[in-house]
Amino acid sequence: MLKLSPVGEPQHSEQTFVGHFRHDGQEFCIGTEAGLVIVYRIEGGVCTKLRELRDVDADSMMPVMGIKYLAPSEGNELGNVVAAADAGGNIRFWHTSSGNLRHTISAGMEAAFTCMDVSANRLVVGGYDFALRVYDVTTRKLIKQLGDTKGKISTEPSVVGSHNNRVFSVIFHPADDNIVFSGGWDDMVFMWDVDLGVPLKRISGPHLAGAGLAFDAGSSQLFTASYKFDCGLACWAGDLSSMNWQCCTEEDRCHLFHVTMPSTRSDFIIACGSQPNEVRFHDATSGKIIARKEMEHAVFYTATSPDDKYIIVLGAGGCQLMELQQQEE
Asked: pLDDT exceeding 90 applies to what percent of the chain?
């Protein structure tokens, strides 16, 4: 049986949208509604705040909606660089050890980023203007814009089209960063070919109001977490050709914001949301709820450490580091 236990007092008490662990699990960062990136260190089971990162030259700070540590590379051997995308259309690259702001990409306020993912070489963002933007992580140059910023959807059934409303979730295929999945308020999920710049497939149904996409490379399956009760949590073939299962019974009802895979396991997935406010563990093969943790406030996002020992739970009540324990039935 899976159980979540808090590690100390809440690390942050104000609304927080996203978080991510460094590759070694000894550090994590969170993105806040106030536009801060806050860095924490875990040592000997104790969590300590290291620093708050703020762009002092910015006229105003917008909520951080996407945050990821970049993979270790030349010039970033320790993996201490984090990318943070905000609702002002900016992506800032912070060095967490020194607190220095290394680079900034600005796409303009109209882009209003709401989601982000990174691979070893690429970074993808989506937001209010309906389009996706894919950047080279090293040069920070735009590789491709995916979709129309005007959100024009073709009326021809044979034409896949593009998003026609705000995008709230983007992820790379974990084994191929030429493939991107996206979803949002238009109740559609797209599968894109970055190099070609076109969508390969589209499904209708999931209404994504948060980071509601996760991909399991081992089983080649995509998971969607819908804010709408009638879609709930669903599992799809990796090429979006069919639905494998759907979890949307009366017992399952929840406004879901996020779904994610554990770092080392493939037998369960983690979802979270509101009404009820909780973190849920679902069997990956059937969708059945196998454990749940009730929270005081709505939960927007969870992130697991590389060894799955810890989970950061983020939402309307702030941030709480929790230990994931496996108990006997």
From this structure: 86
Please report, as a single letter, which amino acid is at residue 310.
Answer: Y
Q: Which of 72, 68, 189, 70 is nearest to 117 (CA)?
A: 68
Residue 29: how many CA atoms within 13 Å on its side-chain side?
31
pLDDT per residue over 146-170, tens digit each?
998 865 655 555 556 889 999 999 9
Query: Does the pTM of the predicted model rise above 0.85?
Result: yes
Listing from the earlier edge strand, what are the strands of the sheet with 90-95?
A: 64-69, 81-86, 90-95, 100-106
Question: One-letter amino acid identity for 267?
Answer: D
Give the DSSP H/E element, type plus range, for residue 51: strand 46-53
Q: Give the model's pLDDT for residue 244.
A: 97
Distance CA 317, CA 100 (A): 28
pLDDT of residue 47: 95
C-alpha 245/C-alpha 264 separation (Å) is: 23
Do the beta carbons of residue 295 and residue 277 sit within 8 Å? yes
Average pLDDT of 178-207?
96
With beta carbons less than 8 A apart as the criterion, state whether 88 and 62 touch. Answer: yes
Q: Is the dihedral of CA 79, 85, 86, 89 positive or negative?
A: positive
Residue 20 Cα to chain centre, angstroms: 9
Q: Cβ contacts of residue 131 below 8 Å, gap of 6+? A: 111, 145, 146, 147, 148, 149, 162, 163, 167
Q: What is the pLDDT of residue 243?
A: 97
Q: Are the CB atoms for 184 and 228 separated by under 8 Å? A: no
pLDDT of residue 275 exceeding 80, the answer is yes
What is the biggest distance separating any 2 CA atoms in the chain, rounded to whole angstroms? 59
Angle subtended at Cα 173 by Cα 30 and Cα 36, rounded to the nearest 5 degrees: 15
* Residue entry with tokens 């536009």: 35
Kindly indicate the confidence band of residue 328, based on its pLDDT and cuts at 50, 70 and 90: low
* Assigned token pair, 158: 């044979």
